[in-house]
Design brief:
InterPro entries: Dipep/tripep_permease (IPR005279), MFS_dom (IPR020846), MFS_trans_sf (IPR036259), MFS_Transporters (IPR050171), POT_fam (IPR000109), PTR2_symporter_CS (IPR018456). This protein is mostly helical and 540 residues long. The protein contains 19 helices and four strands. Helix content is 73%, strand content 1%. A two-stranded antiparallel sheet has the order 1-2. Strands 3-4 form a two-stranded parallel ribbon.
Amino acid sequence: MKDIGTWNEGDWVGAIGAVLLFAILAIGGVIASRKSQEVVGHPRGLFVLFYTEMWERFSYYGMRALLILYLTKHWLFDDGKANLIYGAYTSLVYITPVLGGYLADRYLGQRKAVLFGGVLLAFGHVLMAFEGTGGQSDPTINVFWLALAFIIVGSGFLKANISVIVGQLYKLTDERRDGAYSLFYMGINTGAALGTILVGYLGETIGWGYGFGLAGIGMVLGLIIFIIGKPALNGKGEAPGPLSKNREWTLYALGTASVVVLWLLIQFQAIVGTLLLISAVALLGYLLVEAFRMPKEPRERIFAIIFLLAFQPIFWGLFEQAGGSLSLFTDRFVERGGVPTSLFQAVNPIFIVTFAPILAWLWRALGRKQVEPSAPAKFGFGLVLVGLGFVSLVWGDAVAGQGAKVGVFFIFLIYWFHTLGELCLSPVGLSAMNRLAPRHLASFIMGAWFFATAGGNFVAGMIGQATGGEHGAMTREGTVAIYGTIGWWVVGIGVAVILVARLVKRWMHVDTLKDIELEGSSEIGLEAQEAGAHPTLKTN
């Protein structure tokens, strides 16, 4: 244990994170000790889900903050390969919830799906703590691949399904629904921020196994809370129909067996890219076939959906550099003081909590004056902002000059731009998918949203791989050149989207949309993005 007099900035950040975590646990203990069915006007089940999700996000984002550093410093992958692995892993995390959501809706019910997913996630995070000796020749690396596979499949069963249970605690007309999602959203971002700080701090300053071990403990705690808190859910999230033990355990066996498939896929990233490309073509073809079977207005709404989906991979391809190449750039070329590299990934969820209410207020204020930008225009602004983030970092490099490290201010600046871009695109896109999708395609369209996000994560890995150059080792000059090029290109694409937004808005035919609320649709969407999903989505 360090003497407090020798603490640097990173030690203080870690200590503050630990104090906040204990404070949140104390509040949870007070809530758990209450006998009433409601707490601060909401069902006790909401807080069971809040703490379960907080610990799951604590584990996931804490592990994610360390992953690229672990790949390069412990397993000794070159920078390009490490970025590609990171992109393949995160893309698979966003594909599997489509299947997990389908199995929950059709057979298991959300509660059992979340429970099963939590068990797999706990296994995965615990396995991450087995370091071995390091280097790609170490046979322990197969345990690492297995850990990633467990986390991918576990996320598939847990992501989205836990959000659906939140919605099931309330009637569709219950005015508390938005407030419930605001609280749940706070759990997502609180877990993401604290996990990044504490897991990252332990992993970088004490040892990888300690950091990943803490992530595993967090996931186990979340699982225990969910199991003990079952009565507070009041029977919500159960199977939609009779479920025999035979079928239930068959589904669990298939889910466990799929870990082996993912263990193979994550090791061969090119296969993941090929499958994504083939699936994207098939998905686009199916949507177009469905569109041309429809009357004019719903057909054009499908065109608007395709337009918005097409820009998802571009946005997330840049945004997701945060956990990949940007983390390596921060580690090597930024003046960080004594702050561990991984801790900077906590900036995004903290900014989300800070700026989401401000942007929500801004859209409402503009809406009252009839000047609120359309959904396609907001997509354009999101693209401009994510591009400007990289342009600002290029500027920071120029300000520093050769021989000096980039000022840490510019890392905060890129995260600020990217957070605002996320808030322009993520909640707006989710709402648009829910509003525009024909009722018989609602779940499929949400699956397409997940899929496009997955594609963006793989694109992120490819961009990150390019920063490794021909020999796989990142250079400051080469990375800055790539950031500048993609930054300005995406700014230009964003401007083009804004210019054509009026046409795409006409395709949406918002004025003739029927006021139909699809049960569970916004709940499914809440977990579609990273830590900063918007809490107050409505379909009407």
